[in-house]
Structure formats: structure tokens, C-alpha cells
Write a structure and sequence with these properties.
Length: 220
């Protein structure tokens, strides 16, 4: 019979930090509602700067219905997957580029709901060159944990309607080689959903955002 957790006690922790990621090993103990406790155990977790991230699905009404803007992003970890450990199922050749919704990490002054929206609008401009008003960002439901077993990060999903007269400039990127290759384009919403099932779009946060947008606005 499973026990009900009353609290999680942190007995100690060690951390190793790099430029992008902090990895923590925590020594923990569970305390249960029946007054008992578990033996001490260890758990590893990782987080980037801060513990929140924002992803935004820019959308517009096109001749054939709702369209969404997705960009290609370099993901070395995915590209090198087969070299780290042979996959259980052969998923084809390495794919260094993934189709994704624009996303990023809030800056230190981007706090609260207003800060998340500012972050989202900034990331869309930085990665696509499209200007969307902060007020145009609409929540796509509650935040989600992309990899709760390892990452402490919560991902906040938004949709942003792109005005017909929205300025579009060449994207600045973040100045790193991660954003030098790739590009972006408009997809039909149903086309993008179909591409998720076909494995053409393989990023989970993007598929979740697309599914939530389809439920809210309709796939056509």
C-alpha cells in the first residue's frame, strides 16, 4: 500500500555548475502522513538560469485558416543522441535541427505574469523578427514540466496573434552559434499537427502548444 507524502526533507546537496546548466545531487528523506519516514536517498536534478521558461506560438488567420510560426533550432544533444548510447529503436539519421515554437528564459527583471509575457514577446522578436504586442500574448493553459524526472524547469505556454501590419525585420538571434543556422516559416495549424504525428515536428513543448491552440481556436 502506498504512503501519502507529508513533506520532503532535504538533508544535503551538492551542485556542479556550467555556463548553461547546474546539476544538483540532493540527499533527501520522505516524511509520511502516518508519522513514518523513508530511508535517506539521493536524487539528481538540473536547471538552467532560473527555473522557468516561456514558449510562444505566434499565429495568424491565413487564406486557408489558422497558421502558426515555427522556427528551426540547433539541438546538439538530439543530434548526438545515437553517439551517446544506441537508441532502443532506430529513429533514423541524426537530426541536428528541430522545428519548435520560439522560446526562452526570463531575464532577472522579467518577474510574474507580466514578466513572462514580456519575455515571450522579446523571444519572438529575437528569434523571428516578428513584433507582437505584449498584450497579444494569451496563456495556453497551465505551465508544464517538460522533463519532470530530471529538470526543475516549468514551461509556460502562450499563443500570440500576429497583427496583419506587424513589423517583420531580420531576426537578431542571441549571438550564439545555436541560432546561426535555421530559419522560420508559417505552417497551417492542421499541417503542423499532422507533422507532429509524422515525426517531422518532434519537439514536445511545440506539440503541446499546437494541441492546446487547436482546442481553443479550432484547427481550420
Amino acid at each position: 500500500m502506498s504512503k501519502r507524502l507529508a513533506r520532503l526533507e532535504v538533508l544535503g546537496r551538492t551542485a556542479v555548475a556550467s555556463t548553461w546548466l547546474t546539476i544538483e545531487r540532493q540527499r533527501l528523506r520522505n516524511h509520511y502522513t502516518d508519522g513514518t519516514a523513508s530511508a535517506p536517498f539521493e536524487a539528481d536534478s538540473a536547471h538552467r538560469r532560473g527555473v522557468d521558461a516561456v514558449a510562444v506560438l505566434p499565429w495568424r488567420r491565413g487564406p486557408g485558416g489558422v497558421q502558426v510560426c515555427l522556427l528551426q533550432v540547433l539541438r546538439p544533444g538530439v543530434a548526438l543522441r545515437a553517439r551517446l548510447d544506441p537508441p532502443v529503436v532506430d529513429d533514423g539519421p541524426d537530426r541536428p535541427m528541430l522545428w519548435e515554437a520560439p522560446a526562452g528564459i526570463p531575464e532577472a527583471d522579467e518577474r510574474g505574469e507580466a514578466g513572462l509575457r514580456r519575455c515571450g514577446a522579446r523571444e519572438v522578436l529575437e528569434e523571428t523578427g516578428i513584433t507582437v504586442p505584449v498584450a497579444a500574448l494569451a496563456r495556453l493553459g497551465a505551465g508544464t514540466y517538460p522533463s519532470g524526472g530530471i529538470l526543475a524547469e516549468m514551461l509556460h505556454l502562450y499563443a500570440a496573434e500576429v497583427p496583419a501590419d506587424a513589423p517583420v525585420v531580420p531576426p537578431e538571434g542571441d549571438g550564439t552559434p545555436f541560432e546561426e543556422p535555421g530559419g522560420w516559416r508559417w505552417w497551417g495549424l492542421q499541417e503542423a499537427l499532422d507533422a507532429c504525428e509524422a515525426g517531422i515536428i518532434a519537439d514536445s513543448k511545440t506539440e503541446i502548444a499546437l494541441a492546446r491552440l487547436a482546442r481553443r481556436f479550432g484547427p481550420g
